[in-house]
Automatic annotation (TrEMBL), chain A:
Keywords: Membrane, Transmembrane, Transmembrane helix
TM regions (residue ranges): 20-40, 60-79, 100-125, 145-166, 173-194, 228-248
Protein name (database record): Unannotated protein
Organism: freshwater metagenome
UniProtKB/TrEMBL annotation, chain B:
Signal peptide: none
Gene3D superfamilies tied to this protein: P-loop containing nucleotide triphosphate hydrolases (3.40.50.300)
Coiled-coil residue windows: none
Keywords: ATP-binding, Nucleotide-binding, Transport
GO molecular function terms attached to this record: ATP binding; ATP hydrolysis activity
Domain ABC transporter, first and last residues per copy: 2-227
Family: Belongs to the ABC transporter superfamily.
PROSITE patterns given in the database record: ABC_TRANSPORTER_1, ABC_TRANSPORTER_2
Annotated organism of origin: freshwater metagenome
Protein name, UniProt field: Unannotated protein
Amino acid sequence: MIDTLRSEWIKFRTVPMNVVLLGIGAGLPFLITLLTTLLIDADDMDGQDVLELAVGSSLITAMLLGVIAVAGVAGEFGFGTIRPTFAATPRRMRVVGAKVVLSVGVAAVVQFVLIAVCFAIGSALITSRGGSAGWADTSGSREPIVGIVLFAAIVSLIGVGIGLLVRSTPGAVAILILWPLIAEGLIATLLFVARLDTVAEFLPFQAGNRLWFFDDGSLGEDVVLGRWTGGLVFLVAGAVVVWLGALVTSKRDA
Amino acid sequence: MISVRGLSKRFGAKYAVADLSFDVAPGRVTGFLGPNGSGKSTTMRCMLGLDRPDAGGATFDGVPYGQLDRPLHQVGALLDAGYVHPGRTGRNHLRWLAASNGLPVSRVDECLAVVGLAQVAAKRVRTYSLGMKQRLGLAGVLLGDPHTVILDEPANGLDPEGIRWIRDVLVHLAGQGKTVLVSSHLLSEMALMANSLVVIGKGQLIEQCTVDDFVGRYGDHWVRVRSPRVRTLVEALTAGGASVSPIDDVTVDVRGPTAAQVGELAARYQVTLHELSTQTGSLEDAFLKATAGVQEYSAEVLR
């Protein structure tokens, strides 16, 4: 398994598009944090605001990390490199496992480091401009940091699963992006009209979004899923997609 | 030693490979021949566990490919030189391949040097010609110094120097006692490097034998005679039922009698011979004869 992981890590690092996507994914939230904390009135932001800005703007990072996970799998089928991959490692589940570990691990680490850097630099800029922003301001709401890291990891998990199922990078990326942006919204609206709001909460990304939500009481009292139960639903959805992908991969021709 | 037993693979209702069995012995180059669509590539993919066979399978020294631990140490395969990410460098392509089987980076550099790509190892594969990709693929085959080598159309895209080089490599590997199975449409090349043949058509075995036996069985044979008194000899030959085709004023090709029989006839009529030789048809002719009727796609002659 270590050999397979090492091999997948080399693959990950040596595709230029991954580096570009990582740059965009990490650069955008960083830029947003930088510009906001530079241009806003320093007295209007404290550490809590900087953290919310960092977490909120890094959603795009989580989705782009998911895109990288998709491309890391579907791209192998598209370019045909899955054949030398399975010829070198005939135990296909070992390859799938390594891709899951790598994608989830990279997503979690990148997301955590990005949040930490954005928060540190944003707070430093606010403070340097005469405001007050520090880690102590966030004492009541640090759970979304863990939440967004888990969110990114599970999006990548789903990305691996969709890649295994669809085997086409454009198709798989479209599903990963359009499902939460459009499909879930439409389904949720229909469920809302049918007075099935509770069911809508269990839609994967609706549930997963609870992970990074800053609780300001706006969710209301009728909400069934909390941060961690929502995260669990999201994780189960990701695990099911990957399991289906692995099942198909073990049976289909490469 | 590769053993394929009862291999069958179906795509929809159509069998690409049907109950195919053959052996590939070590220490020789075995050519894997068949018309387009005969199931060669499907067979090779099934042997490597890339396609899931509907029945049967292959073993390498008695072990199915899927059960090999670090298979690159035992079997090196190149099915398509295009199976590379165009954005990676040639060296990085080999690096991930080597890492997957616990091979050191130094082995990557050794193999790049062997195939003559050391100078362009840092260039992205999208800048490689087809011939360079074939060389890169062959470097991947050599990484683990395997005792079995499987190549599907390795000469595709290679220039004459490259074709000769790959022939020399395969003959050298077979000379080291390795098992070499190679498919190719370049039958003249196959005639130069292969010792044995496995010929299939429509997914079924047509013949497994040595190249000489194959050509002997399916190839055309005739006697070439050159003589200043060839007309006298032709009259005697045709009277005896032989088929004679004139080549020029003093040379004919004779079908029917053996060279010895032609020689004795010439002696009887006191005809001086300047040439008396047995001619054998090419591997290509033998192949076309053996696979007549099992062509998946046959074209008409342009008029």
